[in-house]
Amino acid sequence: MTDQDKSREQLIQDLNGLRQRLERLEARQRRARQALYESQQQLQQAQKMETLGTLVAGVAHEINNPLNLIMYNIPLLKKIWKDFLPILIEQKRIRPEQKFGGFAYDFLEDNLAQLIADMEMATQRVAKTVADLKNYTRQSNVAEKAPMQVNAAVNNAVRLAKTTLRKSSVRVKLELQDGLPPIEGNLQSIEQIILNILINAIQAIDHRQGEIHISTGYQTRDGRVYVRIQDNGKGISTELADKVFLPFITDKQNEGGTGLGLSVTYSLVEAHQGEITYDSDTGQGTAFTVYLPTPLNREGARILVVDDDNSIRQMLIEGLTFKHRFLVEEASNGIEASIKLGTYRPDLVILDIFMPEMDGVEVCRSILSEPELADMQVIITTGYPDHPKLDEVVELGFTNIFSKPFDLLKFIDDVAVILADRRTGMQIESS
Ligand SMILES: Nc1ncnc2c1ncn2[C@@H]1O[C@H](COP(=O)(O)OP(=O)(O)OP(=O)(O)O)[C@@H](O)[C@H]1O
Ligand SMILES: [Mg+2]
After folding, report:
1. Ligand 2 centre from 216 Cα, in Å?
2. Is the same domain home to 157 and 174?
3. Which of 296, 317, 341 represents a domain boundary (last residue)?
4. Closest ligand to residue 241's CA
5. pLDDT tens-digit series, residues 291-343
6. Which one of 14, 136, 184, 353 has the lowest number of neighbouring Cβ atoms within 10 Å?
7. CA 261–ligand 2 middle distance (angstroms)
8. Which atom of ligand 1 is nearest to the CA of 247?
């Protein structure tokens, strides 16, 4: 091969490398744009809910006072009418043609009690709406959060729905994953979230083969626990599809629905820094999923990124802070890394092997010599996976080895798994 051929081949190789890098960059950009779009949508929805919350709180307050007056007076009217009726019947015999407000004796005798009862029912309906509204506005400051198990909340909610379930003949199938990491939450609020979705699911089933499937699990990729409630009911109608989380959106006016259930649910989920989504197929059913962060995901694990290549360090940092709330520090060589291991105390080190001055193998040795770093996780990265230095690293007991270049998103998922395993001390299934 001539020198010219060689340099041509080299040029082609360089070009291919550049093309691959460009494709990777474009893919990253596409993903970032999509994520930005989704966060903007969520932000808009959250702002809308907040404005509505303020408005609704004011309306609820204004309605409550006059409503109390009416609710207080109606039972009095009932009592008065009961005592008054015999007098009216007596009077009817003396002056049968007399009318009251245009109504004859017979009409009053037959209907007045019912008219009052109707008024009482209507005010009770308003009272329920106001109570729901108050509940709706209380959402954002869910008090007293404590570590709790989502599965316990599911079991309680199902117990609370027992009567409704019995009346409906709908069957509930539970598939609750054991050993979920606890969430930081308010048990009653989480029960309410599940109950609201469950009751809607029961109400959406209009046939005899009703089945509701409730499952829970853990997502390693974002450290969140989820509850999924799936029904085989009629599905969310297309007119309501984008609006179900807004207050007063209901197709149950005739059954006394206020349309506040899901907006309360949405707010309670928000108050737990969670997320709620749904999928629905007309005639097939609906599945609501609530995602709740675990402390692992919320607190953010501490990660030290060690690499002498600045662009690789920046790419890793961008990836690690993009989806997760990891706290990331960086070091550009082994000496800097050794200092930061002591001062920053990371949960995980992502360590390049080939670096000038003090290389990754030496950093591994210094990690082993520090008993205080014993439960720290280490991920080794290298562009030369076949180099004998890697054997040394494996012999020292460091076996999480990633060859560069790697798929960044997949790598971040793996980081989350490695951290989750360490924090919860259990094997977590990847979803
Ligand atoms: N699982 C479901 N299947 C089909 N439609 C649903 C389901 N869940 C909610 N919906 C639709 O979303 C609407 C809003 O639900 P939401 O719980 O907010 O109010 P509601 O159930 O109508 O009244 P309430 O205030 O008593 O809860 C419902 O009226 C229904 O049309
Ligand atoms: Mg409801």
Report:
1. 21
2. yes
3. 296
4. 1
5. 998 876 545 788 999 999 999 999 998 888 776 668 888 999 999 999 889 88
6. 14
7. 4
8. 18
